[in-house]
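<instruction>
Derive structure tokens from the sequence
<data>
Labelled lines for chain and fold
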Amino acid sequence: MTKSVGQKVKDLVGAPLRMVLLPDDMSKRLGLTSLEDERLSAVRPWISGRLLDVGAGRNRLVREYREGVGVDIVDLGGGAQVVPDSTTLPFPDGSFDTVTFVASLNHIPERQRALREAWRVLRDNGRIVVTMIDPVLSRIGHGIWWYSEDKHRGGMRPGETYGFWPREIRSFMEAAGFLIVAERRFVYGLNRVYVGSKRVDDRELRKSSVSRGDEVERTQRSHYDSIASTYDAHYSDPTSDQYRDRFLNDALTRDVPLEGRRVLEAFCGAGSTTGYLLKHGAHVTGLDISSEQMALFRRRWPEAEAIQASILGSGLSAESFDVVIVVGGLHHVQPRVQEAIDEIWKLLRPGGFLCFAEPHQQSVPDMIRRRWYKLDRLFERDERSIDVRELEDRNKNRFEFIGKRYGGNLAYLLVLNSLIFRIPVSWKRYYAPAALTIEAALSPLQNPWLSCFVTCRWRKKGSNGNELQTAKDSLG
């Protein structure tokens, strides 16, 4: 669809109506270009050959393109084929030349498996096309759109989300075996279309998946080896210990027995939580991928066991720990957080506890954090906050969720994370008392939207190996 100059002017003037206040059909009656029209116009130039449209809705794209199939989990009319879900499509391998996800991927709970399934049904060098808006704009829009479907059904369903940031979409597509070949903005830069190409053979996909994981681990190991002493100075000083004692440690282990228990401190670094665990009678094993961090750990905590290894494949015996503690580590293994959870599940005894504190998605601090990560060399390109709701949905058959608390404001930023702001460690003792007092005063007011991190306590339900396989399958 090529717009005339007049139509462009009309659409610009009418942008508040067509983008915010009016549904697509009413926009069209006023002669405005609807959001659906904008999306399809962004997608059409990338379509060739036989098309599969996933989350097709009323199947407009396929009906207008005239060569292909649309699928959806509900029948909205228009001839789309109804399927139980998008992770097991009823088509042979290599059936299509193009697969599209037009504003639908965020509504698919098992989106990584859906993308892998798209990879399967695509022919060699076939193309995938995805449109997606970022979660902040989407949340604002859904809050205003009186005609939005999710409002009529009481909000997003479990596993759905409002949108994704560009690097999340890139990460999803790359993990599924696609090479990103194009990325374009549309609708005044507020939306994006992503185009990927299927890598040629399955062996290359498997090799790519392994090598990508190896690359993440090598990068993290090298990164934390290089900043080990500086990192330790900022996160192990007395003011940081005060922060953890007041706002982290007790929340992390509330109702979790530590006395005489075997506790794995994963992503331990130099052992910021180790002293607390030892004081409460735990038998601590520290695990970290960085050799420099583990050297500091051994010198500082000779009474604890120290293992340099990756949580993605620790080599430790199954069901050998009563508790696994993670403080700010899971977001460093993106996009392989679920693989880390799988390994932790394996290491825990039945009834054992996973306790973790991590920066979380879908919050005001995370909006700022995402942009900061892009600019700050302290952060690697894959690092991003965790999606707690998605993790809970994936692991609900294997863990019981016994506690969740949101926190982190001024002292979290300026005391615990002084390294990020390059604040000299020597300055912290002067402002830390005031910052800690303010944090304590604001803590009762905090909620998921306004907090910097989430603290979760999960209990392993059982030791059935099929449960582990189920979670791995959910990854695709």
Notes: The two ends are 36 Å apart (CA to CA). The chain has two domains: 34-200, 215-475. Residues 202-226 form the longest helix (25 residues).
